[in-house]
């Protein structure tokens, strides 16, 4: 019975280790930080995409006006315009186009500056996201390795437990399990001297006398905590 109790305590310890691996908490904190960075990166990606489209449009607008100015200038340079009024109108339009080009280039430059700044932010966030991903992979690898080792330990202990249970009466095992559930994982305890090692209480002389008179195969219970009490070579009976 004490062997069974010891094996169950070992299983409890393995279960506790599985739940309390530092990697669990580290991953929880890491994923919380990573989720913030991931959201910020999505926002940064969207902003960069929008600015890239805006820059392409600005480039296209400037190019269209430049081409129109070039065509007008070519008409003037070719001498095809004979009417002074038409020539004056065309020169006036070229002047307007040049001012338009200047305005568009200013807008284009502003978009380029915004895009460069946004790309710096994006690159920083992407670097942080990649670092988080690398750390996550490292933590998960460490966690999985330890869980595998603990699971192997658990399987070995469970196999030993099954062998011990097979040698005990089913009713006794059921009683032990019930007591264990209601007594903090301890269903059976040795009697050391006059003391129950489950509740650490010293038994009354009358209880010790009853234990001493009990048959060797009798199932004994501690009068203080109700746990199954097992006599050993260290018992004062």
UniProtKB/TrEMBL annotation:
It holds the Pfam family CT398_CC. Coiled coil: none annotated. Residues 4-184 form the CT398-like coiled coil hairpin domain. It comes from the Bacteria. Residues 51-66 have a biased composition (Basic and acidic residues). Residues 51-83 are annotated as: Disordered. Residues 195-229 form the C4-type zinc ribbon domain. Signal peptide: none annotated. This is Putative nucleic acid-binding Zn-ribbon protein.
């Amino acid at each position: 019975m004490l062997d069974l109790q010891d094996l169950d305590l070992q299983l409890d310890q393995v279960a506790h280790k599985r739940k309390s691996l530092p990697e669990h908490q580290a991953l929880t904190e890491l994923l919380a930080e990573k989720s913030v960075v991931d959201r910020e990166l999505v926002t940064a990606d969207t902003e960069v995409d929008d600015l890239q489209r805006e820059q392409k449009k600005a480039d296209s607008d400037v190019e269209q006006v430049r081409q129109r100015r070039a065509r007008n200038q070519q008409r003037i340079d070719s001498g095809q315009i004979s009417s002074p009024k038409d020539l004056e109108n065309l020169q006036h339009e070229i002047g307007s186009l040049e001012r338009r080009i200047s305005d568009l280039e200013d807008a284009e430059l502003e978009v380029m500056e915004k895009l460069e700044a946004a790309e710096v932010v994006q690159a920083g966030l992407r670097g942080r996201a990649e670092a988080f991903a690398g750390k996550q992979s490292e933590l998960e690898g460490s966690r999985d390795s330890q869980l595998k080792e603990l699971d192997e330990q658990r399987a070995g202990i469970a196999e030993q437990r099954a062998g011990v249970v097979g040698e005990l009466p089913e009713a006794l095992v059921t009683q032990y399990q019930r007591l264990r559930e209601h007594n903090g994982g301890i269903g059976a305890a040795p009697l050391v001297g006059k003391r129950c090692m489950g509740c650490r209480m010293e038994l009354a002389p009358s209880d010790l006398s009853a234990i001493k008179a009990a048959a060797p195969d009798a199932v004994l219970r501690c009068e203080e905590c109700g746990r199954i009490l097992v006599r050993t070579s260290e018992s004062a009976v």
